[in-house]
UniProtKB/TrEMBL annotation, chain A:
Pfam families: HTH_PafC, WCX, WYL. It comes from Nocardioides ganghwensis. Residues 10-127 form the PafC HTH domain. PANTHER family: PROTEIN PAFC (PTHR34580:SF1), PTHR34580. This is WYL domain-containing protein. Signal peptide: none annotated. Residues 245-319 form the WCX domain. Residues 152-219 form the WYL domain.
TrEMBL record, chain B:
Residues 246-319 form the WCX domain. Residues 149-213 form the WYL domain. InterPro entries: CBASS_pafABC_assoc_protein (IPR051534), WCX_dom (IPR057727), WYL_dom (IPR026881). It comes from the Bacteria. This is WYL domain-containing protein. The lineage of its organism: Bacteria, Bacillati, Actinomycetota, Actinomycetes, Propionibacteriales. It holds the Pfam family WYL.
Length: 329, 327
């Protein structure tokens, strides 16, 4: 994000924000100005040298904006004069107002309850400052997913960048167990809608791809990874490529069709009555059972027969819990 | 070199800013564009550069007014930037609010939106706002826009320009070209959608960006259409992910299971009269909770509300009944 070309409008936008700040203070240390605008002193200096060349009626001495270059080079102090007409920053453009306001709206929806009030307060002030552009602020909207607000992702990114090991608490839904393990993270990969952590798992003693939305907690450790040169594997080709898989065929009624979008389906054919038959490569029977339960009664198992028994058995067992509770049959 | 154009843009801005009268094109040319000599070639080069520069200043946030530069003849067009409309209203932020602003800078993972946020924040810093995100213990959401169609569509939304693109739905074998007047973009369930007027169908349509399988081309002029007043892409997003009223459910979860439910539970407490089971309170829609409870099979049992319990039982009965038929 930082390596974008610095265009002329970028530089002008920066200057029109910098000058009001300088004028309000009279005299500012170069390094303080750089810190305030979250940039380096060189950039501020380059911008000031441009400012030195501009002003009212170019070519007529006396009206140009005055920048004290001696003070800048000597004491690294900025003094700007004859620029009172630039005393106020330019208002937000529609694109700027939208980007900032929508960022805050996204935050307010997902922040922990104790932080919501201050975000809402800040948001209200910005919406007011955007003023008549209110309609423009409705052109962009984000409903973030849990993954996008995850506290885990920044930890993983930092560990990958530093070549550090991470300790993760991982939830395995097919067995409905959680475990804590130390892994050497190599990269994050997005496959369809899901984000995976590719890592060497010390507990399992092998390569593993962890679904990030199932990592309940992550802590970056001080210890470096064992093999810093290891490249992330390409996970886009397939999912369980390093596990033994079985092909299952499901018949999906319309309410269960989202499966086609959500999981890597290897084959797909139309079935009777608006259904669709799909083939999936799966690593565990438990996973298929829980998927079928989640889809109940809109999915039926066509193959393999061996899996059908455990699914119906699970459904019967679940139903019997309610019979025990005295629900009418 | 960017220097000369930046210098010219600054001079143009300063020339027009706060001008009491509209400043004629000729005067502008003389003051800021001396490099374009008079004559057909120079005239054309000046017009092009001036158009581009006005556009750049508008994108920085300047409001450029157009009017007659001559009191007696209205054929000379002039320009000015009124100070009041163009200046940022004075906003004061408490220090905790300034921390929120710092976090907002971390939300967009998309270069153009991140840059726009950065510029907006720089203007606030120009007013003296001290931004320090470290004061707030909150993780900012990280929103990406990896689809190549995002950038041209966002640009078209801002300019109100019609676009066309090849689009292929999951149930289609080949893409078709769609023509759209885009109104806005919404992200839901980790996917971007564009909403607008489908020109060929004459009706509002929503398109998923990941199904745009080729380049998005903008056609025609800017400001070619008006977005219907009151259009709110939030409403579109809500339609994409219908949200049903949320209920608070009490479920019985066998110990060591139901991790997903426990993760977001309001409370978890052992049940004295049923050793090995916990009472877990979770919130969600009936539909969501029903799916989730079923996933755990016999390890999770709904106690309340009745609507959720009935839904789960009905779905289980349907499965058992269907299995019975097969025998």
């Amino acid at each position: 994000m930082t390596n974008q070309a610095d265009t002329a409008p970028d530089q002008v936008a920066r200057l029109l924000a910098l000058v009001p700040y300088l004028l309000a203070r009279g005299e500012v240390r170069l390094d303080d100005a750089a810190a305030h605008f979250d940039t380096d002193a060189e950039q501020i200096e380059r911008d000031l040298r441009l400012l030195f060349m501009t002003g009212l009626s170019p070519g007529l001495p006396g009206d140009l904006i005055e920048v004290d270059l001696d003070a800048l080079e000597g004491d690294r102090v900025i003094r700007v004069d004859n620029a009172d007409y630039l005393a106020r920053p330019v208002r937000f453009s529609p694109a700027e107002a939208t980007a900032l306001v929508v960022a805050l709206r996204t935050m307010v929806d997902t922040a922990p309850a104790e932080a919501r009030e201050v975000i809402a307060r800040t948001l209200a002030k910005l919406e007011e400052a955007a003023g008549q552009d209110g309609e423009e602020l409705l052109r962009l909207h984000v409903t973030p997913t849990p993954l996008e607000t995850s506290a885990v992702v920044p930890v993983l990114e930092s560990a990958i960048a530093h070549g550090h090991q991470v300790e993760i608490t991982y939830h395995v839904p097919s067995r409905d167990r959680q475990s804590t393990r130390v892994v050497d993270p190599r990269g994050l990969a997005r496959v369809e809608d899901l984000l995976y952590l590719d890592a060497w798992c010390h507990t399992a003693g092998g390569d593993r791809a962890f679904r990030v939305d199932r990592i309940l907690a992550a802590t970056e450790l001080d210890t470096p990874v064992a093999d810093p040169g290891a490249r992330a594997r390409d996970l886009t080709g397939g999912w369980f490529t390093d596990a033994e898989t079985t092909t299952v065929t499901l018949r999906l009624a319309p309410p269960a069709r989202w499966v086609v979008e959500y999981y890597p389906v290897t084959g797909q054919r139309p079935g009777p009555d608006d259904t669709v038959d799909v083939d999936l490569e799966v690593a565990s029977e438990e996973w298929v059972t829980s998927l079928l339960l989640r889809l109940a009664p809109h999915a039926t198992l066509l193959a393999p027969d061996a899996y059908a028994e455990s699914f119906t058995a699970a459904a019967r067992a679940a139903l019997s819990r309610y019979d025990d509770d005295g629900v009418d049959s | 070199m960017v220097q000369p154009r930046a210098e010219r843009l600054m001079n143009l801005h300063i020339l027009l800013l706060g001008a009491k009268r509209f400043i004629g094109k000729d005067a502008i040319r003389e003051a800021c564009y001396p490099e374009h000599a008079r004559g057909p070639a120079g005239d054309e080069a000046f017009e092009r550069a001036f158009e581009r520069d006005k556009d750049a200043l508008r994108q920085i946030g300047a409001v450029i007014e157009v009017g007659s530069a001559d009191a007696f003849f209205d054929d000379e067009i002039g320009y000015r930037i009124p100070t009041e409309q163009t200046s940022l209203p004075e906003i004061r932020f408490e220090s905790d609010e300034a921390a929120v602003l710092g976090l907002a800078a971390q939300v967009w993972q998309h270069a153009t939106l991140a840059k726009a946020t950065g510029r907006a924040l720089a203007k606030l810093k120009g007013q003296g706002v001290e931004i320090d995100p470290s004061r707030l213990e909150v993780v900012a959401p990280a929103i990406t826009a990896d689809e190549p169609a995002f950038e041209p569509l966002w640009d078209a939304v801002g300019k109100r320009r019609q676009v066309s693109f090849p689009y292929q739905r999951a149930d289609e074998t080949a893409p078709t070209t769609r023509r759209l007047q885009p109104w806005g973009l919404a992200r839901s369930s980790g996917r971007w959608y564009v909403v607008g007027l489908d020109v060929d169908r004459g009706a509002e349509r929503v398109f998923r960006l990941s199904r745009i399988v080729g380049p998005v081309r903008a056609t025609g002029r800017s400001g070619a259409y008006d977005v219907p007043p009151g259009t709110d892409v939030r409403a579109v997003a809500r339609r994409l992910s219908p949200s049903f009223p949320s209920v608070r459910a009490r479920v019985r979860v066998r110990q060591g299971t139901g991790i997903g439910l426990r993760r977001r539970a309001e409370s978890v407490a052992p049940i004295a009269e049923r050793p090995g089971w916990d009472a877990v309170v979770v919130e969600g829609t009936v539909h969501e909770l029903s799916d989730e409870v079923l996933t755990y099979g016999p390890d999770v049992v709904v106690e309340a509300p009745e609507s959720l319990r009935d839904d789960v039982v009905a779905r289980l009965r349907a499965v058992v009944a269907a299995a019975g038929e097969d025998r």
